[in-house]
Design brief:
mainly beta, Porin, 11-stranded mixed beta barrel, two-stranded antiparallel sheet, 10% helix
């Protein structure tokens, strides 16, 4: 029942927001490809490191979109719950139907809690994340655009992810599985422009659990971004290739 109601709430919120604002918006559709690595590696019984890199391309692979590096320190409360604090760097390039005026960098500090629950055959992961963002948005300097002073914004992210093995009751080594998630991103605080709702990400993938290393996933994500002007909406059709690793540095160092 928890699974059913959570999925219904996520879909209802997404459909409601789109339905209320759709007539006022101008849309652009983009095709992208993301190559991603996510690593959560223990270095002791309770502590670990988060290592992440994403190479994002527009026009599937022809044009640069974004380059993202994220790192953090994990604290494991128990086998199902851990918290993280960290730093993220993002470089955004002009791309798609509504390109930015020039490439610009963004620095983020972030905090999160992640909870894992087993519901019969379904693995349910909930993630609550806060971000403090410093974006050097492009400004006009004489005749050209270049990164300006950092603009500070806050963002909240809520993700619910469900994974299910194709065979058996749990996801084990050398098994295939299906995975799906929905993530909502909401701006708050000062410097929020015409809309607080930033974007929604809906994802589905086929995965394989690699012994010792982690999980490999090939999936598709529909990313709906509401631009700060409150008019433009970007719909990104993203093919994603990801490796999610939980390789335990602590145990390997003690063998």
């Amino acid at each position: 029942m928890k699974l059913f109601f959570t999925v219904c709430i996520c879909l209802f919120l997404q459909i409601t927001i789109l339905a209320q604002t759709a007539p006022l918006h101008t849309y652009a559709d983009n095709n992208n490809a993301w190559l991603m690595y996510f690593g959560d590696h223990k270095i002791s019984n309770n502590w670990g490191v988060h290592l992440e890199a994403q190479w994002r391309r527009n026009g599937f692979i022809t044009n640069p979109q974004q380059l993202l590096f994220r790192t953090g320190i994990n604290y494991y409360i128990n086998a199902q719950v851990f918290t993280t604090v960290g730093y993220c760097f993002v470089e955004t390039n002009p791309h798609g139907g509504f390109p930015v005026k020039s490439s610009f960098p963004e620095s983020r500090f972030w905090e999160q809690i992640q909870i894992k629950t087993q519901l019969n055959r379904f693995e349910w992961v909930s993630r609550f994340r806060l971000e403090q963002r410093f974006s050097k948005l492009p400004v006009l300097n004489i005749a050209t655009y270049e990164p300006g002073d950092a603009v500070y914004t806050n963002r909240f992210r809520l993700l619910n992810r469900f994974s299910c093995p194709l065979k058996g009751k749990t996801i084990v080594d050398k098994s295939f599985f299906l995975s799906a998630y929905d993530e909502m991103l909401v701006n708050f605080g000062d410097n929020v422009a015409a809309n607080a709702f930033d974007q929604n990400r809906a994802y589905i993938a086929l995965g394989y659990k690699i012994p010792k290393l982690g999980r490999f996933e090939l999936g598709y994500m529909l990313q709906t971004i509401f631009k700060p002007d409150g008019i433009k909406v970007e719909r990104n059709h993203n093919i994603q290739v990801g490796l999610i690793s939980t390789l335990d540095f602590y145990k390997n160092n003690n063998n």
